[in-house]
Structure formats: structure tokens, C-alpha cells
């Protein structure tokens, strides 16, 4: 079943819905759809609506490129046979950025039951098709009221600040581990090397953000499965910032390692390095980083205990404590939201 798209407009911007049925190659061996599959669908809807908007008034043809994805929670696992309905709407524009908010619903076509599985916020910039180094100005949208525009501006300023803070990352390299013990960082760490081909790109010669996120989720899933040896699913992804365009013909190295475990969840750091082998002799350069959180499920879909991560070095201890702080902060925010909604 191919993707089906619907388009309609509402304040402040146009919205679309893309739908398709989940197939066996979208899921793991337990039948749970990969988080990367959903992330790729989310980004595809985002690139469609933002590229359409950016070309609505501009004389210079351009394509929207993913710059950032805010923290995304996977509220409910999706299964083979479910129909994913991905709805995307433009909610804010600055001079050079477009904010797209996305909801994902899963439909059981046998019963008609629907449930919300994901919410996501994505930020795009527009690049000229004739000169991919040129950032094109974004057409503005109409807001229902000044408060709506002000809230969007606050979100824009917050994500802009976070992108600046996370642009500098350590030049960590994952070396092959030999004779490692189970439940250590070295035991589960994984890397994937991917040559960017034409099918990874859209209207320009650069890889789509959704393709990159899908590869990141695959690596994180391998790390999680190696650690606990059970069925695992993506629970959330921290904000993902894209700091560099990855062009066709480049080699991507996607690496993942366990950073933190709680009783029922595990955090995996994933980073992407790119080597422009056909163009530059400089070697690898950092392109994307993110933290993925996974949970382990039994056959009834209930969370299983996670084996404790064994710490061996000072760097691993530091990363574990940083992961614990992120875990506690997220838990506190979730509790505050629950109390606010009551």
C-alpha cells in the first residue's frame, strides 16, 4: 500500500496528512515497528509541507532541509498491519526557519480503533536549488492572534540557543572492543557505515534528514538489543541537531554506545560522522548527535527490567552521571505535566 496524501489549509499554515500501512520490513522480529521508520515518515511529511510553503512566494526555487528535531516521545508501539496517519502543520516561520508540528496516529483497520503514537516538532531551512550554500528567506504565515506568534517566537529562540550550545561536540571515536564482559559499554557498542546514494536524497544531492534518523535508530536498536537480549522498542529521542549537509557519494559512519541505564530504560548516545570522500581530503567531520531511549518489552507488551550497565572508566562514569541527570530531568517534567493536566 503506497502512501496517501491529503492537503488542506488552516491557520496559521497549511497542513497535510500522509498515510500508509506498516509492513513486515518496517518492524523488528517481534512485530513492533522501528522508531526509525516512524521518524522517517515524520520527516517526509515535514519536508513536503515546508518545501511547498517555501516555494509559494519565492521566485527562486528552493528545497527545505531539516535542521533540528525537538525531543520526540514514542507514546505507543505500532505493529505490522497498523496504518500510520502522519499529520503535519506549519506553526511558525522566522526569516530563515520553518517550524512544522507533526502528530502520528495508528489505526487498527480491523477494528477502526485509533491511538496517538507520536508528537514531534521539526525545524527546516530553505536552500536554493541553484546554489545549495544559499539560504533562502521564508514566506511568512498568518497567525490567529499576536499571542500565537509570540509563543512561536519563544520556541524559535529556544531551539536556536540549543543548536548553538550543542554544535561543539567531543571528537569521540568508538574503537573495536576485544574480550569484553557482558553489560559493559564495549560489549554492546555498534557502528554502521553507509554510502549515501541517490535513493537517500530528495530534490537536491544531499541526504534527507529522515534517512539519517532511521540509520541512527537502527544503530541504537542494535546497542539496546545487545545489552538486554530481549525485544526492545524506541521510547524517546532527545533533540537532534543537524550541523552539516551530507551530500551524495559521502560515507556516513553512525556509531552508538550505551551511556545510562535505569530500572526500566536505557539511554544510547548516537553520533554521525561524514567523510566527503569524493571532494575533501580532510577526513571525517561530525554531522549529527542525539540520545535515544529504549525500553524492553515482554510478549504482553509490559516493560522488563534492564540489566545495570557496568562502568569501567572515568569517561563512562561521567557519561553515566550525565545520562542520569537527563533521566531525572525528563521524569520531573513528565510528573509536572501530569499534575498540570489533572
β-sheet strand percentage:
25-35%
Main structural class: alpha+beta
Q: What shape does the CA trace take?
A: globular
Q: Provide a count of the helices.
A: 5
Largest sheet: 6 strands, antiparallel, barrel
Number of strands: 14
The H/E string reads EEHEEEEEEHHEHEEEEEH
Widest β-sheet, arrangement of strands: 3-7-4-10-14-11
Rg is 20 Å
Distance between termini?
Answer: 40 Å
In round numbers, the mean pLDDT is 90
**Share in helix:** 25-40%
Low confidence ranges: 7-11
Word description of this protein:
By secondary structure, the chain is an alpha+beta fold. Helix content is 28%, strand content 33%. Strand 5 and strand 6 (98-107) form a beta hairpin. Helix 1 runs antiparallel to helix 4. It is globular and about 60 Å long.
Can you describe this structure in just a few lines?
The protein is built from five helices and 14 strands. It is α+β, with helices and mostly antiparallel strands and 342 residues long.
List the helices and strands and how they pair.
Elements: E1 4-9, E2 14-21, H1 35-57, E3 62-69, E4 72-74, E5 83-93, E6 98-107, E7 114-128, E8 135-136, H2 146-166, H3 185-188, E9 190-195, H4 209-228, E10 231-237, E11 240-242, E12 251-261, E13 266-275, E14 285-297, H5 314-341
Antiparallel strand pairs: 1-2, 2-5, 3-7, 3-11, 4-7, 4-10, 5-6, 6-7, 7-8, 9-12, 10-14, 11-14, 12-13, 13-14
Helix pairs in contact: 1-4
Amino acid at each position: 500500500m503506497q502512501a496517501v496524501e491529503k492537503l488542506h489549509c488552516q491557520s496559521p499554515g497549511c497542513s497535510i496528512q500522509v498515510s500508509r500501512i506498516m509492513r513486515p520490513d518496517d518492524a523488528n522480529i517481534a512485530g513492533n515497528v522501528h522508531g526509525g521508520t516512524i521518524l522517517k515518515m515524520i520527516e517526509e511529511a515535514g519536508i513536503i509541507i515546508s518545501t511547498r510553503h517555501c516555494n509559494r512566494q519565492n521566485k527562486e526555487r528552493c528545497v527545505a532541509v531539516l535542521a533540528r528535531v525537538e525531543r520526540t516521545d514514542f507514546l505507543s508501539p505500532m505493529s505490522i498491519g497498523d496504518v500510520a496517519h502522519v499529520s503535519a502543520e506549519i506553526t511558525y516561520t522566522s526569516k530563515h526557519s520553518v517550524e512544522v508540528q507533526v502528530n502520528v496516529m495508528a489505526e487498527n483497520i480491523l477494528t477502526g480503533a485509533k491511538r496517538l503514537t507520536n508528537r514531534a516538532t521539526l525545524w527546516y531551512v530553505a536552500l536554493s536549488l541553484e546554489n545549495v550554500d544559499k539560504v533562502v528567506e521564508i514566506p511568512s504565515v498568518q497567525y490567529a492572534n499576536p499571542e500565537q506568534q509570540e509563543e512561536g517566537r519563544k520556541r524559535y529562540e529556544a531551539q536556536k540557543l540549543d543548536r548553538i550550545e550543542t554544535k561543539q561536540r567531543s571528537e569521540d571515536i568508538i574503537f573495536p572492543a576485544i574480550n569484553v564482559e557482558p553489560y559493559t559499554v564495549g560489549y554492546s557498542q555498534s557502528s554502521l557505515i553507509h554510502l549515501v546514494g541517490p535513493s537517500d536524497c530528495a530534490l537536491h544531492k544531499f541526504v534527507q534528514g529522515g534517512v539519517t534518523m532511521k540509520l541512527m535508530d537502527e544503530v541504537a536498536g542494535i546497542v539496546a538489543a545487545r545489552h538486554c537480549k530481549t525485544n526492545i522498542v524506541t521510547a524517546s529521542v532527545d533533540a537532534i541537531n543537524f550541523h552539516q549537509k551530507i551530500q551524495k557519494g559521502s560515507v556516513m559512519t553512525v556509531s552508538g554506545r550505551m551511556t545510562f541505564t535505569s530500572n526500566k530504560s536505557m539511554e544510547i548516545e548516537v553520533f554521525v560522522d561524514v567523510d566527503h570522500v569524493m571532494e575533501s581530503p580532510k577526513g571525517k567531520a561530525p554531522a549529527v548527535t542525539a540520545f535515544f531511549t529504549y525500553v524492553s518489552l515482554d510478549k504482553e507488551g509490559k516493560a522488563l527490567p534492564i540489566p545495570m550497565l557496568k562502568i569501567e572508566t572515568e569517561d563512562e562514569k561521567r557519561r553515566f552521571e550525565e545520562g542520569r541527570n537527563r533521566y531525572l530531568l525528563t521524569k520531573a517534567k513528565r510528573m509536572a505535566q501530569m499534575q498540570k493536566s489533572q
